[in-house]
Write a structure and sequence with these properties.
With 184 residues, the protein is mainly alpha-helical. The chain has a domain of 92 residues. 55% of the residues lie in helices and 3% in strands. It has a two-stranded antiparallel ribbon. The longest helix is centred in the middle third of the chain and has 58 residues. The termini are far apart.
Length: 184
């Protein structure tokens, strides 16, 4: 048994010596470092920068266009509001009782000499009602504005006769029967 242990003891210092020899530091000659090419990287960064600038310009242009559109609509809204105000003033002027009275007198209407009021709850007449005769009517123009034909179509007259006779019934039945070419 001593032989294997002795051979093992003689081997251990050899293995340890070899390991120490390998572990010693030595100067390594310089090798040239491999660098990544710069041109593709510079092109990539430039392309990203260019896309950012173009995107910013497009965004700014769209914002300017929206601003012009908004200002156009605001001007239009202002002019329409002024037109609405003008039309409202004209309408109020036409609704004025004084203006209505003047237009009525120009059309030939006269003030009534009597007025009567009907109370719908009690059915009593208050005030001074006047009785009309055929001669004190207000003059009204017979020629009014023309009525479009669409609103005043010609009358559609349908004449209805009595019940159909037996001969007409038979003729009507023949019309409704299908033709049979083999019967000829």
């Amino acid at each position: 048994m001593s032989q294997p242990a002795a051979s093992l003891r003689s081997r251990v210092p050899r293995i340890a010596g070899a390991a120490v020899e390998r572990a010693r530091l030595t100067v390594v000659p310089r090798t040239r470092a491999v660098r990544a090419p710069r041109v593709p990287f510079v092109l990539f960064v430039s392309a990203i920068l260019l896309m950012g600038v173009v995107g910013l310009l497009m965004f700014n242009t769209s914002m300017q266009q929206a601003s012009f559109t908004i200002s156009t609509y605001q001007e239009r809204a202002t002019s329409l509001a002024a037109r609405e105000e003008q039309l409202t003033a004209e309408l109020e002027k036409e609704r004025d009782p004084q203006t209505l009275g003047e237009r009525a007198q120009r059309e030939g209407m006269v003030l009534p000499d009597c007025t009567g009021f009907l109370d719908t709850v009690t059915g009593e007449v208050t005030g001074k009602p006047c009785r009309t005769t055929g001669d004190n009517k207000l003059p009204v123009k017979e020629d009014g504005p023309p009525v479009p034909k669409l609103l005043d179509p010609p009358p559609n007259v349908v004449t209805v006769r009595g019940e159909p006779s037996a001969n007409e019934n038979a003729a009507g039945d023949k019309k409704n029967q299908p033709k049979n070419d083999d019967a000829r």
